Amino acid sequence: MSLTGTPFFMATIVLAVVALLLPLALWSRVRGPALLRGATRLLMLGFAQVTALLVVFVGVNNSNGLYGSWDDLLGTGEHVRAAEDLGRDGMGGTRFADLPASKQAFKPADDPNIGPGVLVTEFTGQVSGAGGEVFVWLPPQYHDPAYRKTRFPVVELLPGYPGASRAWFTSLRVQEQLKPMMERGEVAPFIMVAPRTTLLQGMDTGCANVPGKVNADSWISVDVRKAVMDSFRASQRPDGWAVAGYSAGGHCAAKLAIAHPDRYRAGVSLSGYNDPAAEKASITAFDPELRRANNPLAILESAPRAPHTSLYVSGAKGDGLEAGLALRAAAKGPTHVAVVEVMGPHDTEGWKRQVPDVFRWLTSKLSVEGAPRMTAAAR
Q1: 207: left (phi over 0), alpha (psi -120 to 50) or beta
Q2: Contact 159, 65 (CB under 8 A)
Q3: pLDDT average per 10 residues of sequence, the chain (379 residues)
């Protein structure tokens, strides 16, 4: 039974009701010595409390997309087969253009919480040695004959930590919000891609390459991009690609966009941070060299040339705003940083409300290759 499915959630509710009724029905019927009666009653009360907590956990998990499967929850999945030293560019000495084809077989996602139209595949990256599921949603224009020669812009969507790859679809409902906007021409017809980011048990990779441990950066910025380009009519140019995330995923998005302007023209960080140490489970937080190498502010400040990329950073005071202001202060053309102050808690409901504005901004930053003239307003 799926961890995130409605049947399991309903089963936990039924179990909690039974656990609540059990002591009411059996309290006076317990027999035996006083010590045994007391222990039995305590067990019944404890069982009721545990089942109530289980209902709360499952409900919160389904709402916020923390764990997408039993493997994620229990830490039993294996997502790193190799972690070679791939160098500063994360390519291991190979040019992107020279990589073998990586066309993947996508099928409809079987999670009812995702809704229709989302595809999924699972593979191991040829460069990174990391792997996992990748969800893809195609815009309504993708199958329109008028767009048969169009290469669509792509946005990679990253969750927080812990976070399930499907969370942008299940919790932020990004496809439901954007489909009518795309049909009306309010935003560009983006392909949306959500790759697995939880690659190590109990650890936040911070989308970093750490030789001998994980090549999370190369998995997202090389292998996933290559697979999408080879499997769909996706943009082949950096001005057709962006990366967006919230919380720990926002940190990742800012870092990837600044570190790889040859791969991404834009990045979106919702309630993110610059210093990896903001996430205690980060694999780069406690090594000074790795900590600096994966801090988007430090990368920006030390770049020999200002990266040709744009950032959209939103956050509340004490929750991402200061990180965005620091990036904006350090940015020099052609780097551009837009900072938006928001109110509210650090949760998916707040990030969900920002989706329309985020994608309007992305529409102004990315190009649509070969789009028919009728879509000029959507560009």
Answers
A1: left
A2: yes
A3: 69 83 82 85 86 77 65 67 93 94 95 89 97 97 95 97 92 96 97 96 94 97 98 97 98 98 98 96 94 97 97 97 98 97 95 98 93 52
Question: Are 276 and 302 within 8 A, CB to CB?
Answer: no
How many C-beta atoms surround the C-beta of residue 29 within 10 A? 6
Q: What tokens does 314 get?
A: 């939103």
DSSP state of 370: T
How far lies 290's CA from each of 83, 208, 209, 219, 295, in Å? 16, 9, 9, 18, 9
**Rounded-to-integer distance, Cα 99 and Cα 126, Å:** 9
- What length does the chain have? 379
DSSP letters for 149-202: T-BB-EEEEE--SS--TTHHHHTS-HHHHHHHHHHTTSS---EEEEE----BTT
Q: Are strands 209-210 and 241-246 parallel, antiparallel or unpaired?
A: unpaired
Cα distance between residue 53 and residue 51, in whole Å: 5
Please enumerate in sequence order all residues whose Cβ is within 8 A of that of 95, keeping only pairs 6 or more positions apart, or say none. none
Instruction: Kindly state the greatest CA–CA separation across the chain.
Output: 85
- DSSP label at residue 278: G
Residue 167, number of CB atoms within 10 A of its CB = 29
- φ and ψ at residue 287, rounded to 5 degrees: -110, 115
Q: How far apart are CA 301 and CA 293, in angstroms?
A: 11
Q: How far apart are CA 207 and CA 19, in angstroms?
A: 42
Nearest CA to 315 out of 253, 238, 265, 367 is that of 253
Give the count of beta carbons closer than 10 Å to the beta carbon of residue 379.
15
Would you state the pLDDT for residue 196?
96
Q: How many Cα atoms are found within 13 Å in the side-chain-facing hemisphere of 255?
A: 31
Predicted pLDDT of residue 78: 73
The one-letter amino acid code at 322 reads E
Tens of pLDDT, residues 197-213: 999 988 999 999 999 99
Q: How far is the C-alpha of 222 from the C-alpha of 309, rounded, in Å? A: 17
Q: Say whether 263 sits in a helix, a strand or coil.
A: coil
Q: Residue 335: exposed, middle, or buried by beta-carbon count in 10 A (0-12, 13-18, 19+)?
A: buried
pLDDT of residue 63: 62
